[in-house]
Amino acid sequence: xxxxxxxxxxxxxxxxxxxxxxxxxxxxxxxxxxxxxxxxxxxxxxxxxxxxxxxxxxxxxxxxxxxxxxxxxxxxxxxxxxxxxxxxxxxxxxxxxxxxxxxxxxxxxxxxxxxxxxxxxxxxxxxxxxxxxxxxxxxxxxxxxxxxxxxxxxxxxxxxxxxxxxxxxxxxxxxxxxxxxxxxxxxxxxxxxxxxxxxxxxxxxxxxxxxxxxxxxxxxxxxxxxxxxxxxxxxxxxxxxxxxxxxxxxxxxxxxxxxxxxxxxxxxxxxxxxxxxxxxxxxxxxxxxxxxxxxxxxxxxxxxxxxxxxxxxxxxxxxxxxxxxxxxxxxxxxxxxxxxxxxxxxxxxxxxxxxxxxxxxxxxxxxxxxxxxxxxxxxxxxxxxxxxxxxxxxxxxxxxxxxxxxxxxxxxxxxxxxxxxxxxxxxxxxxxxxxxxxxxxxxxxxxxxxxxxxxxxxxxxxxxxxxxxxxxxx
Length: 474
Fold this sequence. Notes:
Homotetramer. This is allantoinase. It is an enzyme of class 3 (hydrolase). Its EC number is 3.5.2.5. This protein is α/β, with parallel strands linked by helices and 474 residues long. The protein has two domains: 3-61 and 397-417 and 427-469, Urease, subunit C, domain 1; 64-384, Alpha-Beta Barrel (TIM Barrel), CATH 3.20.20. 26% of the residues lie in helices and 20% in strands. It is built from 13 helices and 17 strands. The strands form three sheets. Strands 1, 2, 3, 4, 5, 15, 16 and 17 form an eight-stranded mixed beta sheet that branches. A six-stranded parallel beta sheet has the order 9-10-11-12-13-14. The longest helix is centred in the middle third of the chain and has 17 residues, at 222-238.
């Protein structure tokens, strides 16, 4: 028998206003019908017997959120973040699908063996659906076609080195190397780029003040992003049949470059992160290395233009770049190394809080529910080739729902977070927007104040016409 989900505030995203109605979901978790009025619901209830009716009353019921930028470090660094904890955090934040970055696991997802290790480890542990980016590094060109054929969402690379030891496992690529590789790959693929390029004359850190945030911030000026985005936009205009995606942009100085490239017909999309929209460099106290990330958090004056770019569509996606680590690499242990911004791992933990962070701040910049839907549901699904069954509530789509109260507030505390490591720059902040339930394919994977059920998430492989037989059984 079918399931019935009711709410007086159903938000489809494709219409301006809320619906007071219901959603009929089949036993296999597919949306069968959207009912748009109370009268239609009453008629259905009178004439039809449902297996279960879930009435969320005045809660907002909208499509499940999709985060395309999540570091799940299992296998190899499960203590940093594993599949179980990451997907629980996602579910508690209203996310029904997340896409794993290829960089921090051992092995990284730069080979078929690495992808097999990821998928075999994930099975039976995930509470939401999970897809994977493949990695593009200088010496794995022979693996790329196989990774794409196997169903990765696209290929992800970096134009600048990251912290050790990950840099040894996932080295940066030059724009020249990237151009040569692009010439050998089929069209209609996605290339996602961490867009910072090293400066010809690097800015030296202030070694005398390693526990001051500015000592780190000065080493990664906006010019690094400008240089990288200039290089990628040039490649995007040369390779117009390939889709380029700019990851976790922090600087508003790159926005005009992105808009110009899009106007000239390139397939280019771009994302920013909740921390760039809500945190400011001048507010970061000494030793607070949980704020360190790459690119860095910049000044408050940087933020309004980023919000405006989301409103206009210049920035397409909001994603977490969730990258927690244990206290040692984050320099959060007691002792001489505590609070050293120059040595700390650059990653922020915020996957569970993304919706609340954005909702808390967006309205002061003239943004609303439609922008959350666009940047955290619809556009992420389009980017990853999931738009035929994810990212909206419509007949034939997966019954993935985020049910939340946009008017309710809460204070962030470490004990409420599901991630493996609880350190986050949002501790003690008061946020607005509380997730009460998350539904994946009709199944309640998260309900506030209740324990998690079974890990019934699926592994998502991007559909391609060039599947390889040896990988079908992953």
